[in-house]
Structures are given as C-alpha cells and as structure tokens.
Amino acid sequence: MAQPLSLLSPPSTNNKTPFANATLSTRSSTTPLAIVLESSAADEMGRREETDMLLHDQDARLVYQRATSKQITKHFENNSQMWAAPLSTRDYMDLQKHLSETEASKGETAYWVLFDREAPETIISSCTTYRRDAMVNAGHGMRPVKAAVIADVFTLPDYRRRGMATKLLREVQQMLDNLDQRVEFSVLYSDQRPEFYGGLGWTPQPARHLRIVLGKAPVGMPPETDELKHIRVPQLVELGNKDLNMAKLRLSGLSDHGPNKTHAQLLPTQKLMRWHMVRSAVLKKKQLAHRQAAVAERASLHGASCKRRETGTEAWAWWTHEQRAPRLYVGRLVATRVRGMERDIKAVLGVAAAEASQLGFREVVVWEPAEQTVAAAALLVEELGHGASFVEEERPDMVPCLRWHGGERREGALVDAQFFGWV
C-alpha cells in the first residue's frame, strides 16, 4: 500500500509500494525557444538546425518521477494559477493540506511530475492520482476492484501544446498498468478538452446534470416531521452503509444489459463523503470570513432524508457547499426504488433548496439525475414559484473520461457517476 503522502512529506523510495517512484528519460516534441526570423534563407535553415539540436538535448534531460515534498508544493502552487481564485494562493495551499490529511487521501494519493533534470525546481507538467474503491460488472455479477482518479493536471503556460502533458500522462498510464495491486480502470475529469484525453485513451463518458435555479424569493426551510429529517455528518454513516449495499446490488443487476458489456462504478464510500465535507468546511471558513459572523458561524446542514411509513421506501441525499460557484452540489442522491418516488425526492430536494437559499446560492445541482429525480424537480419548482426553474442538460465541464486497465477497448461505461466521485 502506498505510504501516506501530505504536502510536507516526501514520497516513499520503496519501489514495491503501489505508487512507487519512477524516473526515466523521454522524448519531447518541442520546447519554448525564441526564433528570430532572418531575411536570409540560409541563416533561417541554420537556426532551425540549431533549434532541433537544442530540442533533442532537452528531450534527453526530461525526467518523470513521483514528486518530492518540495515538488508537491510546487505542483499545487502551479495549480493555484488556474484553480485557486477567489482564494489566495496561501489559502489554496492550506485547503490542499487539509485534503491530503483526510482518510480518503492518506496512503491513497501520489503526485507525479515532469521536469528538466538541470532545473528540477521548475515543474513543467504534473498531476495527482487517487486510488479509489470501485466495482465492475462484466456480465457475471459485481466484482470489487481498485480504480484511480487522476486530477490536478497542469502544465506551465510556456510549455503547453508541446506534448508535455501527453508525456506525463503516458507515463502515469504505464505506472497504473504495472502496479502490483491491479487498477481495473481510471477516471480523469476534464474541464476543458475531453477530446484531448480521448486521444490518450480516456474515453469521455455521458455527463448530464440537473440544475434547479431558485427564484428571487427566499426559500423557507421545511420543518422536520416524522418522515422528513434534516441530516448532519454523523447521521450519514448509517445511510452510507445502506447506500453501498444498494449500489452493489444494482450494479449486479446490469448483467441484463448484455454479457459483453463491462460497467464500472466508483463506490460512494464514507471516506469520499468526508473528503467532500472537509473541502466544503474549509472553503466556507475561508470564503465567508469577510461576511457577517452570524452567517459564517451558522451550522451547515449536510443532507436530508424522507422515509414513508406506509411503504418503507426512503430517499436521502448529502451535499456540499461550493462557495466559489456559488452552488449547492448534491454529492449523492439515493432512492430505494427506481420509480414512483418523486414525492420523496421532492421533499429532500426542498431541504437542499432551502439550504442553498439561506447561504445566498441560486442553484442546486444534481449529477446524473434519474427520471424520477427530474420529475421531482419539476414538482419542486412549481411549488416554489417566484421564477424558480429547472433544466436537465449536458455538462460543459467536469466530464468523466474512462480508461480500462492496459488501455483495453471494452464495450461499457461508467455508471451512476454522481458528484461524490469528483476531485
């Protein structure tokens, strides 16, 4: 098992660990060099020959390896250029440190870098890999496996469109394919160019979301009843165990979709839920610091459940507060039946809408909504009125891209890819 790795701790040097260090030279397609155009064709040709030689020299100097503690810090400093706002770089680094100390990260995370051996302090391209519990069904029932989620892919602006990210990710593929503990599949969430990752073997998956847009009027918090309950983190543990069992049963049932298809799913574990809760809490603390103390210190509501006594059916959800959007993202929405539970789901989404409204958010977002979830949203916005609306649409970002072990081509897909799996 990989050794715990935080922003302050160096990687293990034991090559038997799953995310062992790797150092090798690779070829590069180009590098940032200034070429001064000369009027003479002969001079231009000479300069091109000189450039090719310099390129070849740097090719031989490129190194890929698991990051040292200093390189991990630089990796996130680089990422902060794109993802920190509106946080300061310091606050963004502090957020990453908190996340690295969660149960979902300790011993399950590794950082990978590409750099010039003559300038190791300059990280040209880098990424993070997270090992995750998962399951697959290849037509013969559910089988537990390990998966990897790849995140924080970043290349310095001066080196972009020069094949550096491609080099990095090719080496990450090789590393994942050769681990002692097999990684059955990997998922990479694309924010901008899913076709780029598709060319590297990570096939973009269908990605839809449901957006419930609140109207101008505040949404009151529905009171708790015998059926409707407000949920905070400690109460989610029991529901999380029930969710895992249901997820396994439902994936096993997908064998009816054809014996030649392989379906993959990241498991909605409590570790992932807590990772999202930590992220939400740290972001809230940092981004609400400038607001009134009463707002900043308000206890967050993390979920809701609705259980019908007459039927025994139940729906529940947990969510996170995305201060930067600002939106409330439903990390996981579960219903014990696949149809006929619109009223239960509506009640749960009503609590989510009220929580969003009290935080000043305008949207509640659900990834990969079921038909009955969309129907429940329609009932909710009709009840809310005051300009509330909803839309189900393709997601323009955070698109999951799937690659099977060894780059194998399989018919199948990533299923039930709700927000909990994103990093």
Question: Secondary-structure blueprint of this entry?
Answer:
Layout: E1 24-25, H1 41-61, E2 62-66, H2 69-83, H3 89-100, E3 109-116, E4 123-137, E5 142-155, H4 164-177, E6 183-190, H5 194-199, E7 203-204, E8 208-213, E9 228-231, H6 236-252, E10 261-266, H7 270-287, H8 293-296, E11 303-307, E12 314-322, E13 327-335, H9 342-358, E14 363-367, H10 371-384, E15 389-394, E16 399-404, E17 411-414
Helix pairs in contact: 2-3, 3-7, 9-10
Give structural notes.
By secondary structure, this protein is an alpha+beta fold. It folds into 2 domains: 24-206 and 401-418, 3-Layer(aba) Sandwich (Aminopeptidase), CATH 3.40.630.30; 209-396, 3-Layer(aba) Sandwich (Aminopeptidase). The protein is 33% helix and 27% strand. It has helices at residues 41-61, 69-83, 89-100, 164-177, 194-199, 236-252, 270-287, 293-296, 342-358, 371-384; strands spanning 24-25, 62-66, 109-116, 123-137, 142-155, 183-190, 203-204, 208-213, 228-231, 261-266, 303-307, 314-322, 327-335, 363-367, 389-394, 399-404, 411-414. Helix 2 (69-83) crosses helix 3, helix 3 (89-100) runs antiparallel to helix 7 (270-287) and helix 9 (342-358) crosses helix 10 (371-384). The two termini are 21 Å apart. GO terms for molecular function: acyltransferase activity, transferring groups other than amino-acyl groups. Residues 9-25 have a biased composition (Polar residues). Residues 62-238 form the N-acetyltransferase domain. Residues 1-25 are annotated as: Disordered.
- Domain module tally: 2
- Per CATH, which architecture of the largest domain? 3-Layer(aba) Sandwich
Structural class: alpha+beta
CATH superfamily of the largest domain: Gcn5-related N-acetyltransferase (GNAT)
CATH topology of the largest domain: Aminopeptidase
Helix content: 25-40%
**Cα distance, first to last residue?**
21 Å
Q: Which ranges are low-confidence, i.e. pLDDT below 50, for 5 or more consecutive residues?
A: 1-16, 18-55
Reported for the largest beta sheet, the result is:
10 strands, mixed
Based on Cα principal axes, name the global outline: globular
Integer average pLDDT: 86
Total number of helical segments? 10
Radius of gyration: 24 Å
The CATH class of the largest domain is identified as Alpha Beta
Instruction: Report strand %.
Output: 25-35%
H/E series, N to C? EHEHHEEEHEHEEEHEHHEEEHEHEEE
Number of strands: 17
